[in-house]
Design brief:
This protein is an all-alpha fold. It is 62% helix and 0% strand. It has 5 helices and no strands. It has helices at residues 8-23, 27-40, 48-51, 57-74, 82-87. Helix 1 packs antiparallel against helix 2 (27-40) and helix 2 packs parallel to helix 4 (57-74). The longest helix is centred in the C-terminal third of the chain and has 18 residues, at 57-74. It starts with 7 loop residues before the first helix and ends in a 6-residue tail after the last helix.
């Protein structure tokens, strides 16, 4: 069952990095890690109000670009098998 794509731990780790960075006032790192945590698992979006006044607009834009590039890379309709080939290159044709 390990090949089913359960990557919840990655989202949790990114959320933890984001909270730690926010505590240290590393706003860009916090916004980027939060954006990637939301891209991995949609559940952290409920914590968005906690970031609302603590993160600058520039850092939020950086997170939005990171999320956009992440979702485009792994959900492109032109090449839906890209993730499988990336993770298992020895099985690609």
């Amino acid at each position: 069952m390990a090949g089913s794509g359960h990557i919840d731990i990655v989202g949790a780790l990114l959320l933890l990095v984001s909270v730690a960075a926010l505590g240290r006032r590393w706003r860009a790192v916090a916004a980027l890690a939060f954006g990637l945590a939301v891209a991995v698992k949609l559940l952290p979006i409920v914590l968005l109000p906690l970031y609302w006044k603590r993160v600058r607009m520039r850092d939020a834009a950086l997170a939005a670009v990171a999320v956009d590039s992440y979702t485009y890379h792994f959900s492109s309709t032109a090449d839906s098998d890209r993730l499988a080939r990336h993770l298992r290159p020895e099985f690609s044709a």
